[in-house]
Amino acid sequence: MRFPAAVLRAYDGPFTVEEVALASGPADGEVLVRIAGCGLCRTDLAVRRSAGRSPLPAVLGHEGAGVVEATGGAATGLRAGDHVVLSFDSCGRCRGCLDAAPAYCDSFAALNLFGGRAEHAARFTDAAGSALAPRWFGQSSFAGYALVPARNAVRVDPALPLALLGPLGCGFLTGAGAVLNSFRVGPGDTLVVLGAGAVGLAAVMAATAAGAVTVAVDRHPERLALAERFGALPLPATASGLPERVARLTDGGARYALDTTASAPLINDALRSLRPTGRLGLVARLGAELPLETGTLDRGRSISHICEGDAVPGLLIPRLTALWQAGRFPFDALIRTYPLTAINEAEHDCETGRVVKPVLIPGS
Questions:
Q1: How far apart are CA 172 and CA 2, in angstroms?
Q2: Structural domains counted in the chain
Q3: Does 165 share its domain with 223?
Q4: Mapped to the 3 state alphabet, what secondary structure does the chain carry?
Q5: Structure confidence by residue, pLDDT tens digits, 13-32
Q6: Looking at the domain assignment, is residue 227 inside a domain?
Q7: Looking at residues 46-65, what average pLDDT do you find?
Q8: Does 195 fall in a domain?
Q9: pLDDT for residue 39 is more than 60
Q10: What global pTM score does this model have?
């Protein structure tokens, strides 16, 4: 079968929307999904800075949602017509997967970032018959269709706005999962969120839904206005004395902090904003050494990295959609849709901060 897809052919080049071909249907344990919408995530754009480790040319995209068209056997647990949200790939067999921590799968990097599985090679070809790179995050969903392992696909209520659900598979899952899974925030807890982008604002919404007092820190007034709309106390990152200001707003310091910026000065400020035994979680990948200032880890404070919100997607995604249906997780307010053919415009708007979460719609 043939369908349009956005192909990245050079690390410093534009996406090109081309006709691609899929040589065969789903094998055992796979499903073919017609994509209704796919979020554009900064991890997709980070391929440009991956030092060539992510193979090109490739079809990227890892926040897909769509309708199951065909299944590779009954063992998938899905059937044609099911509405699904797609998430990250995992092996299902290693200790991390068996411990219900698939984001810490032993094969996570290989499966999602650097080439996929051996059996996935050359499943996609371009119009000239040349092979495209194996699946990105088990999906490659900047396309009309995606061929995915069934465990990547989470069935959702068909009454939901399917085209908008894709970011629940990564960006929104990461922010909300950090709050609900990693920190297990509850009523009366205090949280400071550094960076009010897609991940940070998802964290704010989840914390508000959980009954926490949340402080949002960002340098863009419009992002702080969004955070305030979703229940956070806004705090400009540009002013001095951030830890002291957080302490005043949280009655002596936050119990939890979530950094989405990978900024060393902000990370040190976040640690100083914590009360004794407080915990800081990092979700952004650090691009350089992180020098910690003297005293930042005193009095029982701790710091750790959080991958994919410590989520089991099949459990967290339905929880988030239920919160949305109850009016308590309004993630759709962060989304602007673009036709797949406008992917380069969507990338520009994402990189410049004009939009929080672009979602690409194939065929529109």
A1: 31
A2: 2
A3: no
A4: CEEEEEEECCCCCCEEEEEEEECCCCCCCEEEEEEEEEECCHHHHHHHHCCCCCCCCEECCCCEEEEEEEECCHHHCCCCCCEEEECCCCCCCCHHHHCCCHHHCCCHHHHHCCCCCHHHCCCEEECCCCECCCCCCCCCCCECEEEEEHHHEEECCCCCCHHHCHHHHCHHHHHHHHHHHHCCCCCCCEEEEECCCHHHHHHHHHHHHHCCEEEEEECCHHHHHHHHHCCCEEEECCCCCHHHHHHHHCCCCEEEEEECCCCHHHHHHHHHCEEEEEEEEECCCCCCCCCCCCCCCCCCCEEEECCHHHCCHHHHHHHHHHHHHCCCCCHHHHEEEEEHHHHHHHHHHHHCCCCCEEEEECCC
A5: 999 999 999 888 898 889 99
A6: yes
A7: 88
A8: yes
A9: yes
A10: 0.94
CATH number where 274 lies: 3.40.50.720
The residue segments making up the domain with residue 72 are: 2-169+330-361
What pLDDT, in 10s, does the model give residues 219-257?
Answer: 999 999 999 999 999 999 987 899 999 999 999 999 999
Indicate whether 16 and 162 sit together in one domain.
yes
Q: Does residue 159 share a domain with residue 16?
A: yes
Mean pLDDT of 330-348: 97
pLDDT, position 116: 57
Looking at beta carbons, which pairs linking 312-317 to residues 24 or more positions away fall under 8 Å? 312/100, 312/102, 313/85, 313/87, 313/88, 313/102, 313/152, 313/154, 313/169, 313/173, 314/151, 314/154, 316/173, 316/176, 316/177, 316/180, 316/181, 317/85, 317/87, 317/154, 317/156, 317/168, 317/169, 317/173
Type of residue numbered 281: G
